[in-house]
Amino acid sequence: MKDGFYLTYADFRRNRAIEKEAVVTEMDRDQLEFMGKLMNQEKIVYRRDGAVQSVDPRIIWGFFQNKTLYVNYKEEFYRVPVFGSICYLVASVTVYSGGFYDPTFGYVVTPGRGKEIREFIMNYYDGEITELKSGRVEELLSRDAALYAEYKALSRRQQREQLYRYIRRFNESHPVYF
After folding, report:
1. Contact (Cβ atoms closer than 8 angstroms) between residue 88 and residue 132
2. pLDDT (tens digit, 9 = 90+) per residue, 110-145?
3. How far are the Cα atoms of 56, 69, 94 from residue 88, in angstroms, in the given order?
4. Cα(45)–Cα(41) distance, rounded to whole angstroms?
5. Element (H, E) at 37
6. Whole-model pTM?
7. Three-class SS of residue 121?
8. At what angle do helices 145-152 and 163-173 cross, to 10 degrees?
9. What span, in angstroms and rounded, lies between the C-alpha atoms of 49 and 146?
């Protein structure tokens, strides 16, 4: 796949990228991180179907750069290290904590927000990004009856330990085609 960005998930599925050659910019297109730097711009101007258009990078679905997919999750782009029918990614999300009283130290902890690293999966067939939970993975694995039966035969502990292995095996059995 060529370096470029996808306005929507439908564009991604149809492999209708706006390639970097179509972008109107003074930046050097030969830079290794061209697409990533482009996503940090205030707006992106590009040519498509003979017209010059512009888009806010925060609403772009994703982009390919150096044979790697990056997807937009809550207005930030995250690398997808495992690409297939079930994609896997790690994202830094903002979490909000309510205030509480800590009886051990005798003081009140005030409400606040912070960043946490979370794991996510994306179903290639609908583009939905959800937090990595065993129930959601089971739902996706159930599309392959033999693999799902093998996974369900494991104990809960073994399922947690081998979750990534089964995602990889599912992707090997169900390759993605454009």
Report:
1. yes
2. 667 778 889 999 999 888 999 999 899 999 999 999
3. 26, 11, 19
4. 10
5. helix 34-38
6. 0.83
7. strand
8. 170
9. 46
